[in-house]
């Protein structure tokens, strides 16, 4: 799963016993050599799905990490692109790789933006927020968008209960719950706390008009349903 340039088992253990912020600061120099980085196939499929929904001027990647999402924003946005993350280490890596972008260090649950962007994206970050924290996250994204702006992010279909992936995700989440019960500071990262139905409900409460489109380029499951969908949450032009 990891390239020879990725973190060692010891480094992963140290990260897992740290806070989320400190853990990602430690992992940042080798993050791009881990399976945690958003695959290029997902980024490409997102660009393809969004290419007919613009034009977009300014774009924001929330929980940008080392900046993989900048490739999406750079392909779609004509104006300034910005990444926001609370890990200093991840932002330093992102800045080195994408000097054309601007960077902001902030907690995603308290985003410091007010109608600054036409497009907001996020990749692989929702598992870092407990269900009770999602309203603050989505409220901040809503505020960050101009009227008519779009929030977009891919979300995977839950794996079949008969699959190895299902049991691996279940085991990981259980291990993290035990870890966070007995160890402080907590490290919040769960794979099974962001079902599409719950996420759609939270986005609707935040004020978005929500739909999801299949990312067919990423394949389908055995029952014919898409393996990934792109959530499209639009901020109304005329707010209530």
From TrEMBL:
UniProt GO MF annotations: methyltransferase activity
GO annotations under biological process?
methylation
What EC number(s) has UniProt assigned to this enzyme?
2.1.-.-
The UniProt record lists the Methyltransferase domain at 60-149
The record's annotation in Pfam families points to: Methyltransf_25
What CDD domains is this protein classified in?
AdoMet_MTases (cd02440)
UniProt KW keywords: Methyltransferase, Transferase
Q: Which InterPro entries match?
A: Methyltransf_25, SAM-dependent_MTases_sf
Under the heading PANTHER family, the entry gives: TRANS-ACONITATE 2-METHYLTRANSFERASE, TRANS-ACONITATE 2-METHYLTRANSFERASE-RELATED
Protein name in the entry: Class I SAM-dependent methyltransferase
Source organism (scientific name)? Micromonospora azadirachtae
């Amino acid at each position: 799963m990891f390239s020879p340039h990725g973190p060692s088992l010891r480094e992963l253990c140290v990260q897992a016993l740290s806070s989320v912020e400190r853990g990602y600061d430690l992992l940042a120099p080798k993050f791009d050599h881990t399976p945690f980085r958003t695959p290029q196939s997902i980024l490409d499929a997102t660009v393809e799905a969004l290419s007919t929904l613009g034009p977009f001027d300014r774009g924001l990647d929330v929980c940008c990490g080392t900046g993989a999402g900048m490739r999406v924003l750079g392909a779609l946005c004509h104006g300034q692109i910005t990444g926001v993350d609370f890990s200093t280490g991840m932002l330093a890596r992102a800045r080195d790789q994408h000097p054309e972008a601007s960077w902001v260090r902030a907690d995603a649950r308290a985003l410091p933006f007010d109608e600054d962007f036409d497009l907001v994206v996020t990749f692989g970050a929702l598992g870092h927020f407990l269900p009770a924290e999602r309203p603050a996250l989505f409220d901040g994204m809503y505020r960050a968008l101009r009227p008519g702006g779009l929030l977009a992010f891919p979300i995977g279909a839950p794996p079949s209960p008969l699959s190895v992936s299902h049991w691996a995700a279940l085991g990981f989440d259980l291990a993290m719950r035990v870890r966070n019960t007995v160890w402080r500071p907590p490290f919040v990262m769960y794979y099974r706390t962001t079902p599409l139905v719950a996420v759609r409900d939270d986005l609707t409460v935040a004020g978005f008009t929500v739909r999801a489109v299949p990312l067919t380029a990423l394949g389908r499951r055995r029952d014919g349903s898409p393996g990934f969908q792109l959530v499209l949450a639009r901020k109304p032009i005329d707010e209530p």
